[in-house]
Design goal:
Helices cover 52% and strands 8% of the residues. The chain is built from 23 helices and 11 strands. It has a 7-stranded mixed beta sheet with strand order 3-4-5-2-1-6-7.
């Protein structure tokens, strides 16, 4: 017999009660502290929602009518420690035993038209505080210490229906805090919920309003969206509402107009599939790329963003995207800097975008030892992510082609493993170090030592480990050639040469 909405609500309450049993002593204790002082206290938002979903919540968020100064006084006497870093927004934190709590005074925050920060205004009732919350599923509370369930805006019914709806008019809610439009996309990805039609319409009408929100806050929401179990619905919502054009314009730009002969795929759809396939390849906690991995997921969704700028229609109806990986790496760096990503994450993602075609550049021929060394050396610590990105980038429906590409990459990984057994492949260094170079050539530290080291590094990549004696002979021969070149180049042009690099292909 199919379950009714009432059955779903009953199950949700039962799941919430079971999930909160371990916390009941803490909740009752903290509730008594506030009610004894004449104040109200309620567990609110995410913890209540997650309890109703039968999930553990990492946060314990509370709301109260007590002003921050009074909250500090009460938490000082209750907890092992407390802090007021969020006092300007009405939030005071405390720790007791292993539990960390945050207590926020009833609020009614509003963004002014020209402001990037909310203007904090304290409220007087729990119901008004819940009204200012982003969605009804986050506008439920448990009053303490009685554990009375408070749900004035139908959040439990929306939770059962898996719907994201604002407690009040979406235009008012999104106007108060435009970041809530990004949160709608994030929750669609995290929870698998559908955003109510009226909220989607408001997002489309108010997309420009996101421009007043700081890049840092937008980045945090984007990260949470990408780290969700299924980012696709959230990304699709950002694109369909026009928000992506304001926060990640490179993504909707991938919706290239298909040429009349349909000779190239929808790059936007391809990128979403690559992201899904990369997520499927993430490892468990003990693996080399434990999921969810932000770097891999960013690289997957951004790997082809250089295509719009490099698209060319060739004679005969073909389409090319020459060097789109290089253009994509530059665009990736630019966008991630604009979103205030940290330097390391930006560099790693951009490098993966730059390298994502390297495997295909070798064609179907057998991989030489030199080519394998260069592949591993260029990828460096990103090699395991590059493996997964490259495999994910195969979205062809041609089963024979897909099997051939997968087999070729299997062979590459086998070759890497074989060479690792023979030599220190992950840290390829010349057979001679800087001190040995200076001693053999009789030169002081300086640019020539660096050029000599670079020559020997190229030699090492080409031929593998050749030992001290052979490396010494090659170094002396190279130095003799450099000296001869310098003698015929009195203006010093030779000294600016890169130092004997060679180009090797598979």
């Amino acid at each position: 017999m199919p379950q009714t909405p009432s059955d779903h609500l009953t199950e949700a309450r039962r799941a919430a009660a079971a999930r909160l049993i371990p916390l009941q002593p803490l909740l009752a204790d903290l509730g008594d502290v506030f009610t004894s002082a004449g104040h109200r206290l309620a567990l609110v938002g995410g913890p209540v929602r997650d309890a109703l979903l039968g999930r553990d919540s990492p946060d314990l968020d509370f709301t109260t009518d007590a002003r921050p100064e009074e909250t500090i006084r009460l938490l000082r006497g209750w907890g092992d420690s407390h802090w007021d870093i969020g006092k300007a927004f009405g939030t005071i934190g405390a720790k007791k035993g292993e539990h960390v709590v945050e207590v926020t005074t009833y609020r009614a925050d509003v963004y002014r038209e020209d402001s990037r920060k909310p203007e904090v205004a304290y409220g007087d009732t729990l119901e008004a505080d819940l009204l200012r919350r982003d969605f009804t599923v986050n506008a439920m509370a448990l009053e303490l210490p009685s554990l009375t369930f408070v749900d004035p805006y139908g959040g439990l019914a929306d939770l059962a229906a898996r719907t994201l709806r604002t407690p009040g008019a979406p235009e008012v809610s999104f106007g108060d805090d435009p970041l809530r439009m990004m949160r709608a996309a994030r929750f669609a990805a995290q929870l698998g919920f559908t955003v109510a039609p009226e909220a989607v319409a408001a997002m489309k009408d108010m997309a420009d309003r996101i421009s007043i929100v700081s890049a840092e806050r937008i980045r945090v929401e984007l990260e949470k969206l990408l780290l969700a179990p299924d980012p696709r619905p959230g990304l699709e919502l950002l694109v369909s509402t026009g928000l992506a054009e304001r926060v990640l314009p490179e993504l909707p730009a991938l919706k290239l107009e298909i040429d009349e002969h349909h000779r190239h795929k929808d790059v936007y759809e391809h990128s979403l599939i690559v992201l899904e396939q990369a997520i499927a390849l993430e490892d468990g906690p003990e693996g080399p790329v434990p999921g969810p991995d932000l770097v891999l997921r960013l690289a997957a969704i951004l790997h082809d963003i250089g295509k719009p700028a490099t698209r060319r229609f060739e004679p005969g109806g073909g389409v090319s995207f020459h060097h789109h990986e290089m253009e994509g790496a530059k665009l990736t760096t630019r966008r991630m800097r604009a979103l205030r990503f940290d330097k390391d994450t930006t560099q790693q993602v951009s490098r993966l975008v730059q390298l994502h075609l390297r495997f295909h550049g070798y064609g179907d021929g057998a991989w030489t030892d030199s080519a394998v060394r260069r592949y591993v050396t260029d990828a460096g610590p990103l090699l395991d992510r590059l493996h997964k990105l490259t495999r994910s980038d195969c979205t062809t429906r041609n089963k024979r082609k897909a099997a051939r590409l997968a087999g070729a990459y299997d062979d590459l990984e086998r070759r890497i493993a074989e060479l690792r057994d023979q030599e220190e492949l992950d840290s390829v260094r010349p057979d001679l170090d800087g001190n040995q170079i200076m001693e053999i050539l009789g030169i002081p530290a300086g640019r020539d030592v660096g050029r000599a080291w670079k020559f020997l590094k190229e030699l090492r990549l080409d031929r593998g480990q050749i030992g001290f004696d052979e490396a010494r002979e090659e170094l002396l021969a190279w130095w003799a050639r450099e000296q001869e070149g310098a003698a015929g180049d009195p203006d010093g042009a030779t000294s600016a040469r890169s130092g004997g690099e060679t180009t090797t292909t598979a």
